[in-house]
Amino acid sequence: MALAGGLVGTVVLTSGMRAAQELGLTRMDLPLLLGTIFTGDRARAAVIGYTLQFLNGLVFAGVYAFIFWATGTAGWLFGGLLGVVQALFVGSALVYTLLPAINPRMGTAWTDAEENPLLEPPGFMLVNYGRHTALATIVAHVFYGAIIGGFAAHFGWS
Fold this sequence. Notes:
- It is a single chain.
- With 158 residues, the chain is an all-alpha fold.
- 67% of the residues lie in helices and 0% in strands.
- It is built from five helices and no strands.
- It has helices at residues 2-22, 30-35, 42-71, 76-102, 133-154.
- Helix 1 (2-22) packs across helix 3 and helix 1 (2-22) runs antiparallel to helix 5 (133-154).
């Protein structure tokens, strides 16, 4: 049932991040960042990116399920705490370090004036996409984790 929670959690996380973008709290569009790994066409990149976002949400829900199983506990609070850990990992390692290394359309800290990348690098904890990006990312991941933890607890891992 953690995977069902992962689906719901991913919808909430993705919608929350989109709302944060629309409210001017962040300029980060994670589906676009993911999709531009594969294409420079922004419309296609968005479709690919949303697909990858949902697949990643299910993969991470599987990781959460394993942690719930390994610890013998689950619940919205424990899931929310795992969400904080995931957000810090995403902001400091995955998006900050790996995405610029694998996305051919993203600049890096070493991009010079001769290059014209489609996307700017995210910076540590995603600060290049706005002052509130890290906070929005953490809050969205807390909800994601809490939803997965709640689903898992409701269906027997508490």
